[in-house]
Amino acid sequence: MSVHTMETLTLFNNEPYRRAFSAMVIAVVDNAVVLEHTLFYPTGGGQPGDTGHFTLADGTQIEVIGTVRDPLLPSIIWHQVQQCPPHLCTGALVNASLDWERRYQHMKMHTCLHLLGSIIDAPVTGCSISADKGRLDFDLPEMTLDKDSITRDLNVLIEQGSPVNILSMPAAELPTVLETNPGKTARPPAIHGDLRMVEVSGIDLQPCGGTHVHNTREIGRVYCEKIEKKSKSNRRVILRFE
User: Which of 39, 74, 80, 138 is the most exposed place for a label (fewest CB within 10 A)?
Assistant: First the structure.
């Protein structure tokens, strides 16, 4: 199969809580593997790529140390492995498992950052997520942010237990979304001409390709650890789980 005709079917968009799956290998290059479909989320939108392991038919375990999209063909997802054994080849069947606790922390923090964006009225200029913390950068020239207020307001929203829904919207409607949500990204993921939208019911709606929890109460308590001035007009807000 030519690399130009390959495509990895994504399972993580519709099944973010699923932890394991089986799939056929469709390409191996050095220590990188492409599967016919995957639950492993590839690095993007500030969210790290998933880690985990593959198990081959003979019991061999292979550590997956990262997951990325192909820089030229983004429909292809590469699983970066610690070491690729000779018998891991095209056509092989693997049983794959996520490092679930790490992924679930990413899901919780990603949803929490959507809440953070909803309470700060400024354009978002950057995002980063890890298993224990997350941050958003805002285009905000004046220092009007307060750690205690952010902590209080976020935990109030979390405790509301609002549902988190995944919606689809025609890409042509993006200008309307940006008009009503001026702080949101202007470069959303588009799938077959549609935008993948993440809605925190009654709180936030924005284009996003990441994985999220089903209800804000799953996030648990968080606190604003730090607010940094990164430039004349850039403020960085860093959150951590309690």
Answer: 74
